[in-house]
Amino acid sequence: MRKKAFIYCRVSTDKQETERQIKDLKQYCLNNEFEIVGVLEEEISATKTIKAREHLIQLVKESKADYFIAQDISRFSRNVKVGLELKDRLHQFGVCLIFTQTGLKSLNEDKTENDVARMLFTMLMSVYEMENSTKKAQIRNGLKNARSRGIILGRPIGTFTDLKVKYKNIVKELNSGMSIRKTAKIYGVAPSLVQRVKKQMT
Fold this sequence. Notes:
Distance between the termini: 46 Å
Number of strands: 5
Structural class: alpha/beta
Largest sheet: 5 strands, mixed
Number of domains: 2
């Protein structure tokens, strides 16, 4: 019986593409004879809270997948606390996490937790979390220096953000007839944002 896989790819900005990630993950499943039962492509910061990632847990649960497959731990989470909770929640359904760039598997064949993988998982996420903190500090300092030189910051007047492109998953849910409030809850965003997306759809 073929093992079932849920593949996941994430980008943090609308300037990044998921196409290459999806192609590589599908090839991995083909090479390992996994049946793909779910795919999620999303634009979301990897530092988001567990509440903002609930939709991911629910989708994997509903897919009845045996494996959750992503390219790298940094695609999964860059927050140690959230990442460990996500992992443990998926383990409750018997789902093994696989990260293709390292070959890391979170569960052993008998479904017990892989202790070595857990240690590496925690260490790598700690590194990614530290990178994020350093980057944020550099950005804050850069903005402070720019303001001190009289540089006007912010989006230029008259620019337009196509929310339909930026929030494709929200558009998909709204097109299926889901309410604004429920869509906002699923994706961990404010109802006002979903309302703005819906407004651009009309």
